[in-house]
Each structure stands twice: as C-alpha cells, then as structure tokens.
C-alpha cells in the first residue's frame, strides 16, 4: 500500500460518513426500510465521524512546521482560509437569496456574521481547522494531560451562543463542538511529534484490540444508556481511532481513496446537492420503497456533484473554488 493511501482512506471514510448523515437530512430522516439502520449508523458514528478528519489534519502539523512558520501560515491561508471565505460567500449568499423561503428566516447581517464566526452550515469545519493550525505551534508545548482534559471540560461547560444573538447560526454549540474535536487534532500531532508511526502503532495487536473494545463500549453506551454530552464520549472516541486506522489500512475501495484524496471538494460541494435535493424533491408517498429510492438518490447526487467537479478540476476548471495553491488537483489536500 502507498504510504499515504491509508490516510486518504481514513479521510474518505470520514467524508462518506458526513455525506451519509446529510443524505438522511435531505429526506427528512425518512429513508424507507432503511430508516432504523440509518439512525443507528449516524448515532454510532457521531462521536468519531468528524474526529477522524481532524485527526488526519493533525498528522501534517510537524511536516508543515519544518518548512518554517511563515510558509506554514501562508499555506494554511491558501488551502484553508481562502476556500473558507469563498464558500462562506457561496453558502451565505444562497441563504440570503432564499431567506424568504426558509423555515427560520434570518437577517443578512446575522447570516454573514454567523458564517464568518464559524457558525456556517458546512464551512464551520474550515473555520475551526484554520484556528487549530494557528494555535497548535503554541499548544503543542503544553503536556497532553493538560490539553485534552481542559479542552473537553471547556467543551462541556461553556454556554452555547444565545439563539437571539446576531452571531447565532444553524448550530449554536459549534464552539463546544470545536473544543471537543481539538483533542483529535492535537493527539495526531502529539504522536507524530514523538516520532511514532501512527499506522504501525495502530495495527499493534494489543492497541488494536483495546481500540476495538473502546468503540464497542462507546457504541453500547450511546445505544443503550446515552452520554450526558459529547465531552464524556471523547476518551472512548479517541481510543477508537486505531481501529479506524486499521480499517483504512486494509480498505481496498477505490471510491473511498478517491474521495479522501479530493476531500475538500467532496466536503464543501456535496452539501449543495443535499440542499437542492431537499428543496426540489418534495413528493409525498406512503410507499417505503419510494423513500428507499429517494434516500439512495440523495446519496448518489451528493457523490455525483463533487465527482463532476473533480473531473472538471483535471482540466484546470473550478480550482479557484478550493485553493490558491498553484498545484495540480491531484496534489492538493485540504489538510496537508
């Protein structure tokens, strides 16, 4: 296996999990015969789904800093802050244009401020990721036994943004969510900074079995007990990472690798298809088979739109939507 293939696979698995979640949202949770299954899958993957993406991003901190802090920052501006601004303009602009048809109308200022402050529907990921890259050169000097507990405590204890605030958005707990996800990013950098081979460590039998048991316990707690909040899930979710690294290492599905290699395209653009699908397809039917087909159509469209964009990027088109870097599309990574 290519040295980076497992990284692309891990990133691709995370993106597919996100697309799967949004596909269920596109059909208002009614996936026909699959409704129960989709609910269970989305519930079980919630503690780890986005954590895997941030973990992958953290793997590249060390190599980036070795090039110098100035170049490190410049690269993050080009590959993260730049597409954040572009897609805030796209999603924020669409929300303003179709605001009158929204179930929860907002003022244009509210829409703009909520997106720019990290409360955008899909762009919040890049907002948090850019901040993580800004602070990691300083935070990585602090012991892990302080960073992770403090981050999770803040995630649990900080109040949400008030719903009547001008900064309120689709998820007023996005700051809490980012604090929950920071340990995934930090842990990856911590391992690389200590010269540990993440793949080798993750596939060590004792580590792998412990990780599998952690995910089983996490799943059992989520399904049958329920955690008070996401911060309580984090220790088990972090311990579950080697299990998913192992899956990524032995996956041989070209689609997953392709999605991971083009993660920024699939992450940012799939939601356009989801939103269009949810607004255009409003046919009511009592048939479960009809809703089965509707769910698969939503999922397929959320893969097809980014896929077409990836094809266009091979011909040098639409590259400006995702990066300022002057590189071939295949070499551009959102988190490298």
From TrEMBL:
Residue stretches in coiled coil: none
Transmembrane segments: 47-65, 77-98, 122-139, 204-225, 231-248, 255-273, 293-312
Residues annotated as domain Acyltransferase: 5-306
GO cellular component: plasma membrane
Major subcellular location class: membrane
InterPro entries xref list: Acyl_transf_3_dom
Membrane topology designation: Multi-pass membrane protein
Keyword field: Acyltransferase, Cell membrane, Membrane, Transferase, Transmembrane, Transmembrane helix
GO process terms (BP): enterobacterial common antigen biosynthetic process
Subcellular location per the Swiss-Prot or TrEMBL entry: Cell membrane
Keyword Transmembrane helix tagged: yes
GO molecular function per UniProt: O-acetyltransferase activity
Superkingdom per UniProt: Bacteria
Family per record: Belongs to the acyltransferase 3 family.
Name recorded for this polypeptide: Acyltransferase
